[in-house]
Amino acid sequence: MKAIINGKIIHNHQILTDHILFFDKQIVSINKSVPPAGCEVIDAQGLYVSAGFVDIHIHGSGGADVMDATFEALETISLALLRSGTTSWVATTMTMSQEKIINALGNIVAHKEDVGGAKIRGVHLEGPFLNPSKSGAQDAGFMQEPNLKLIAPFAEHIRLITIAPEMSGAEEFIKKTKELYGHIVLSIGHSEASYEEAARSFGWGVSHATHLFNAMPPWRHRAPGIVGAVFDSDVTADIIADLVHTHPSILKSVVKLKKERLILITDAMRAGCMRDGIYELGGQVVNVSNNRATLANGVLAGSVLRLNEAVQNITSCTEATLVEAIEMVTKLPAKLLGIPAGELSAGYDADIVLFDEKISIKSVYVNGQLKYHV
What we know:
With 374 residues, this protein is of the alpha/beta class. It has helices at 71-81, 98-111, 148-151, 170-180, 195-204, 225-231, 248-258, 307-317, 322-327, 331-337; strands spanning 2-5, 8-11, 14-16, 20-23, 27-31, 40-43, 48-51, 53-58, 60-61, 64-65, 86-92, 119-126, 158-163, 185-188, 206-209, 236-240, 262-265, 277-281, 284-289, 292-294, 352-355, 361-366, 369-373.
């Protein structure tokens, strides 16, 4: 057993400064007991201690992409993510040819248990069931009507599907997916849906919104669109808090309106944790410069955001407290996925992050084992 002492432990909506975290492969307890003989004692030296971060929407990092469809790519991403405090991630696909999507899905299923860094918690299918008019950096030429046959062989491993509910066949697909695969979260995104269409889709089974504000109609006072429907409902939503995809003022408003149902994501592509330069996303050339990843036409192509940076941006630009911001990358995404992570509670996975006042990551434990330290 291990024990972390002298840390500021973020747990149960508060910061504990006089407690000790005991863990093995799972969290054992948080209390004031003296560590027993033989227990490995870790001095946090005043650092914050929280559950490991969970990224439900990420395409790549460290120079690799999920669509590379190799074990080496998944391993590279898994190890790179530790630098941002991420201990769990959902491997996110792109809209490409059906053959490439199937290859990527097969690769994730074959190797998700073998990576040595952050754990792969399943698949986020972002496309191909999207609206071509809101393709963003996705390839509209490969978008198609919702197809249960495509997801059926991999359904056990799919955690999230982004879908445009206004497209032909979407209503039947959403209802059937919820009936057959209750663990899959259906998310509205890359969509032209009106306020009314979005609200109806929530009744069909859509319960989340993908990168709120991006790849959807703007929030207008006479046509509130998807954003307005999200604000008027209890669905959860995720947002890219990189100050590029969303203005600080927008972040401030979203936190006020959706704080307890808001999840921070990176939507990072292969240039995450890398230098500026020319990269690739979904078969398209991407230029990365000054924290912006764009296609040749200027369209944003994912991000190079790290999840710890998202936490820092939320705490500095909004009224969210550090505890609230940490829950947006731990408890809330873990609850959405239904995984035993995101909390420092007894029986949960011992995925633990130590960081300083600037949210700079100092140590990361996965299943109780030290995986990253600076």
